[in-house]
Design brief:
Largest sheet: none
Helix content: over 70%
Structural class: mainly alpha
Number of strands: 0
Order of helices and strands: HHHHHHHHHHHH
Strand content: under 5%
Number of helices: 12
Amino acid sequence: MNVLEALCLGALQGITEFLPISSSGHLVLVQHLLGFQESQLFFDIAVHVGTLMAVFLVFRRDVALMLRGCLRAIGQATSSPPTSISPVLESGVRMALMILVGSIPTAFIGLLLRDVFDRFFASPTIVALGLWTTGLLLVWSHWAKPQREYLENPGVFDALLIGLVQGAAITPGLSRSGVTITTGMLLGLGPELAFRFSFLLSIPAILGALASEAFHGGGNYPEWHVVAAGFFSAFFVGWSTLRLLRSLVAKGKLFYFAPYCFLVGALALAIALF
């Protein structure tokens, strides 16, 4: 892989990581077309970290609120006598707890089925099935009966189920943002809350994937400047795309991406067969 290819793959990651069209599925297909015979998992993790930095930038206030709330809650609980915290900080603590709950099924899937999912990254057929599943879910979420009143906060069941589908989205072709946002809305979360919860939940998942890759190793390790090019390309393009996605979710236009998922899924199947 050269720098130009890394820049293109990083930009591709920045766009597809946030739009509901599966970043991993596109990376598998492009790497297959470029003729990479070995796994590029380390490079894939690097560009995922680039988009993670974009998430931190866009959701910096949410992250700060969760950290402040948790630290204040610990301090207040250990004081004598214990005192309460403000409603604003309490909302940050509640969100942090639900992020923790949602991360549990994601972690179990990632740890127990890592070897299975690693093999999926070499299969355009799996990519096709994942993209078609994503497209069907986007259509379903659009035509499902809308909630009369949105939930103010995700509950434990909501967090567990969204965390479960996030874990399943390790499968290339199954869009993490697409399945988590649509699942949240189907459970009764408002579009903005489903959007925020989806990407806040992605933070521990991506950090866990990075730690797992560092521990297990494997795959091909490009030169550092190639990895850096992919990282910064993914960061800047991802930041712009994330802001666009927020607007699309608010306007209820996620299902617009379903035909694209079906089309690219068909292309992936053609690549696998021919």
